[in-house]
Design goal:
It is a single chain. This protein is an alpha/beta fold and 668 residues long. The protein has 20 helices and 27 strands. The strands form six sheets. It has an eight-stranded parallel β-sheet with strand order 8-7-6-5-4-3-10-9. A hairpin with a 2-residue loop joins strand 26 and strand 27. Helix 6 crosses helix 8 and helix 7 packs across helix 8.
């Protein structure tokens, strides 16, 4: 093996970056339904009922199965809930449902050991299973660290032996929000820490000859989640392992935000062939999760038949760490600026000022001024159309070159070229020119002729079925050629439902954004249609009949940028999906907090039903609202507790008072 191959192996996390191919993992049986190997991507979700309420849990499980769940997870926070799993299982079998059940265990090894004798799979969280978190930074010597691992082995091996005896599968599920003090002290709050947390437990299983294992690396931040899964595969490859992967973005929230964040994280990994089973975690009833997961998984059926994409010899980026592609700035595009949003009005005639309200611009006739919202588009593509008034400040118009060249002294208007036409044109803008490129153009040496042109912003297009990989390949080539022109990512969709547009565009754009690619985003949607295969299980369509296509797409683009942590335009909510541990009504509470705080641009609020993942996730939020007892809430500032056991009826007011104390409150 030569040095270049060794370097590339250090970056490897999938079969290919250009040819779609499922990553082959070990086959693991969960009851009678196997995952991994050559099996399809499996769908699962988790109940939100009290596990001690057998009837309610059975009824909800049946609804989940009818919605498409192939596995159902149920929380077992204590030995009593673990024991009642047998009653739940028996009742389901009596009613003709043989769905494999998964016990969700955190702090209670004795509950896990009992559950492993009853259900088909147990999920343990290595950060909670043996370790207790005090958020203490401890300096371990190698010998002391090894002693801690021996303590874990002693506590963990009994469960491993029971799983071997009963044929029970196990998920070792790391959560970014609940890493142990030991892991945090050595590796920090990082993807590497997440991976090592799982590998410590996995190596114990291998020592015991137990291999019926699934792994997960969940985080509420899709970027962290993607990096952790990639790194996990890389580390497993180095150690000769190939355990199947359960994918999920934890605490994604509800509604449109939850779907976008989930699609961005899960979809990015699916694009590279990673993932054997998925769960979309929404702050909604669990039967609404499966249709979203199914839509994500189904997109990759037949994906291997895409048009060939030129292979690469070496990945020019570090796939485990974020680094933004370096670009120079042209009129506020590229450089250190946040990604810009393009509104496409090429198929809409603009008759009056009011037509721009849909993309965040409202005109006040009395003051003769434009007002911009926090989600005002930066660019408007008019195609062959034109504005009947001057383009507002804060907005740049893009016209096809043929139209632009006929307008004398166009104000805030710039031309869009094909590369060949641009190079041959005698009339160009002195400030800003948009030039379309695709993979075919990139193979032509003409692309290097714009390398030093400080007026050219590139528009990267694709019509490949495996479009994200083709556009990523274009970015790789730009890096290799040291072309630093800003790039706007453009994707086209036709005859697509809003639900699928939401998921597909979040994947296609988000997967590039979280790797540091893209100085702008542009969606061209020819026709939106009704969704016929969601089984009516989307909790709401998120669009009103009065909303224009342009308004829908503008909001979607800003939400994708927010989910990718590239441009913050509103309050962010990190909300868990609820389960039997939840100590208050998560959906109702999340909506109540949202109504009172959604105007706080840039503030991140975590809403957690219980303590399991709460404290750790606070580190990724400004404020935390966590259930700490029946009708009791504890408030956090980041990961630090500031107020304990507040009555639920007063808790939202207390949260707002805390935000006011920190000077982050503004009146709506």
């Amino acid at each position: 093996m030569n040095m270049e191959t060794k370097i590339e192996n250090l970056k490897k996390y999938c079969n290919s970056l250009t040819q779609y191919s499922r990553y082959k993992t070990r086959e693991v049986y969960i009851g009678d339904i196997p995952l991994g190997g050559n099996n399809p991507i499996r769908i699962q979700s988790m109940t939100t009922t009290d596990t001690m309420n057998t009837q309610a849990t059975v009824e909800q499980t049946i609804r989940m199965v009818e919605a498409g769940c192939e596995y159902v997870r149920i929380t077992a926070p204590s030995i009593n809930e673990a024991r009642n799993l047998e009653n739940i299982k028996n009742e389901l079998r009596k009613r003709g449902y043989n769905v494999p059940l998964i016990a969700d265990i955190h702090f209670t090894p004795n509950a896990a050991e009992l559950a492993a004798r009853i259900v088909e799979k147990v999920r343990i969280n290595p950060g909670n299973y043996v370790d207790k978190k005090k958020f203490e930074l401890i300096e371990y010597t190698d010998a002391e660290y090894q002693e801690e691992l021996e303590r874990i082995r002693e506590k963990f091996v009994p469960l491993v032996k029971i799983c071997k005896e009963y044929g029970t599968a196990m998920r070792i599920g790391t959560n970014h929000g609940s890493l142990s003090d030991r892991i945090m002290s050595r590796y920090g709050d990082t993807p590497l820490g997440m991976v090592e947390s799982a590998l410590e437990f996995l190596r114990i299983c291998e020592d015991e000859g137990f291999h019926n294992i699934v792994l997960s690396m969940k985080a509420s931040n899709p970027q962290v989640m993607v990096q952790a899964y990639r790194l996990l595969v890389n580390k497993m490859e180095a150690e000769g392992m190939n355990y199947p992967l359960h994918l999920g973005v934890t605490e994604a929230g509800g509604g449109e935000d939850g779907r976008i964040k989930s699609a961005l994280g899960i979809g990015t990994l699916l694009e590279d062939g990673l993932g054997d089973t998925i769960r979309v975690s929404l702050t909604e009833d669990p039967e609404f999760e499966a249709p979203v997961a199914i839509s994500l998984a189904n997109r990759y059926k037949g994906r291997e038949n895409h048009q060939p994409i030129k292979s690469i010899e070496e990945n020019p980026i570090d796939p485990f760490n974020y680094n933004k592609r370096k670009t120079f700035e042209i009129l506020g595009i590229g450089g250190s600026n946040v990604p810009r949003v393009v509104a496409d009005y090429s198929n809409r005639i603009i008759d009056s000022y009011r037509d721009l309200i849909d993309i965040g611009f409202s005109y006040d006739e009395l003051s003769d001024k434009w007002n911009l919202s926090d989600t005002a588009a930066d660019l408007i593509y008019l195609g062959k159309n034109s504005l009947p008034f001057d383009c507002p400040n804060g907005l740049k118009a893009i016209n096809d070159y043929e139209v632009w060249q006929k307008v004398e002294n166009p104000y805030n208007s710039y031309p869009l070229f094909e590369l060949k036409n641009y190079l041959n044109s005698t009339k160009k803008s002195d400030e800003l020119n948009f030039v379309k490129i695709n993979s075919e153009v990139l193979s032509n040496s003409d692309i290097t002729k714009i390398k030093d042109d400080k007026t050219v912003v590139l528009i990267v297009e694709t019509n490949n079925l495996h479009g994200m990989a083709e556009q990523r390949r274009i970015f790789f080539e730009l890096l290799n050629l040291d072309i630093q022109n800003p790039v706007i990512i453009k994707r086209d969709y036709d005859n697509i439902s809003f639900e699928k547009l939401q998921l597909y565009s979040s994947t296609d754009l988000g997967a590039l954004l979280i790797d540091g690619f893209g100085d702008g985003v542009w969606l061209k949607v020819y026709k939106l249609i009704n969704d016929d295969d969601s089984k009516g299980l989307y909790v709401k369509s998120f669009i009103r009949k009065t909303e224009s296509k342009e308004k829908i797409i503008n909001r979607l683009l800003f939400n994708i940028l927010q989910a990718a942590r590239q441009r913050i335009s509103k309050t962010e909510y990190i909300a868990c999906p609820s389960c039997g541990r939840t100590l208050f009504d998560l959906q109702e509470t999340t909506e109540m907090i949202r109504k009172r705080t959604e105007h706080l641009k840039g503030v991140k609020i975590a809403i957690m039903g219980c303590i399991v993942n709460g404290p750790g996730e606070m580190a990724d939020a400004d404020y935390g609202y966590v259930g700490s007892g029946v009708d009791k809430i504890t408030l956090y500032r980041e990961k630090n507790i500031v107020r304990r056991n507040i009555p639920t009826k007063n808790a939202v007011d207390e949260l707002i008072n805390l935000i006011k104390e920190d000077g982050k409150w503004v009146e709506p």
